[in-house]
Amino acid sequence: MGMRTTFRILGLLNLANGLWMLLAPGGWYHHLPAAVPDTGPLNPHFVRDIGAAFVTIGAVLLLAAPSRGVLLAVTLFYVLHAVVHVTDLAAGRLGAALCMPRWWKEAR
Q: pTM of the entire structure?
């Protein structure tokens, strides 16, 4: 699979997630298979803010020519996103079960 195809697939996934967050923050909050409600009460404004970031990343991946700069910027977002999760997990603010999708936990 080429880099352009990878960018398009990732772009569509990010765009879909972001649109879901923007258009139905409550649905995203309750039905995302990552147990988001375990992190605290729903804040629709905050979900929409983050949805805007995902839509932006999706648009960049879909519209920009594959380049090292775009790849580095998107990677930075995901590394920082992961650091937040790992830091919260290490500090005890999140349970380890939150790191597994709900469907994985239900299958066990």
A: 0.81
